[in-house]
Amino acid sequence: MRILVSGAGMAGLSTGITLGAAGHNVTIVERATHLRVNGSPIDIRGEALTVADKMGVLDAIRDHRVDMSERIQFVDAAGATIAELSDAEFNDSPDDTEIPREDLARVLRDALGPATTLTFDDSIAELHDDGDGVDVRFASGKHGRYDIVVGADGMHSATRGLVFGPENQFIRHLGFYVALANLPNCAQPDRRNPMYNIPGRMAGIAAYRDKALGVFMFRSPWIDYDYHDLAAQKQLLVDAFAGHHEWKIPELLGAAVSEPELYFDSVSQIQMPTWHQGRVVLVGDSAYCASPLSGRGTSLAMTGAWLLAEALRDNSHDIVAAFDQYEREHLPHVTYAQGTAGPGGDGLVPATQQEIDARNRRLSALTP
Length: 368
Hints:
By secondary structure, the protein is α/β, with parallel strands linked by helices. It folds into two domains: 2-67 and 100-170 and 269-341, FAD/NAD(P)-binding domain (3-Layer(bba) Sandwich), CATH 3.50.50; 174-268 and 343-366, D-Amino Acid Oxidase, Chain A, domain 2, CATH 3.30.9. Helices cover 35% and strands 26% of the residues. The radius of gyration is 21 Å and the shape is globular. This is Monooxygenase.
């Protein structure tokens, strides 16, 4: 089949690999002019490790692994360590693998087969599903007709919006916002990842190899803002930490304000009654975002891409049956991953000083 995949993130690239390997003619279209890799390293967990092996990328993933989670330390205003976060707090198994986002994107891009084409600087503007195929008009003005369209364009999926309706029907805000900024002049010679809490807020540094990121998280009810407006995002971050000059907060905020590709978003989940309609199907965060608090978004995306390809193979003459199989087989993974997000925010960003102190005492008691 001729298949269009919207989005070249981890979900879109994984879908391009699995569907291309299954013999389909796949086009991936990405709105950005390059692979978008801003953000912290990500985890490959559980069943996704088996899927990565079947996709032929597990060895390359392990060749690029890092171990940031083993060095997360909560610090006081003077920078002294007062508690450490063990990887046992969030890992599924000792085999869980952490890899820089940019490395995983390149691994997946390099694994795309000859049947898959990756096109940047374009996106779906309109689509029409007539039952026999999907006619697509692109933002560039080009047109194409496809047997299936796969939306793999993230939590704020434009594909989902065109087919299923407004985002507010499906988004579940978990009460936090997160931001990540490059720290080009920050060296962490002891390879620590210090995190500093004030009630309802956290600021920190996440370092790996020769790179460091400023990490921010704060509690907040839902905020209406344009997620394409970088200046608005930066102002929300500055406002959240206004009046706080402890530790390295001013320095980190300065870096965030200067960051041309700041990552800022709500900590939210996408919950939908179905991930397909007609000949359009969703994969990854566009369908079942579990939020950064779960640490399982990429694993869900890779597993979902594999199960979608298997379902299309098993039901080669019945797309509806294929999509139903994909949902049925992947739903347990999604339910589990989304369920793990709940306690994470309270552990990272306690709401009160009393809760911060209690968290630190609990972690200290667990440290040998």
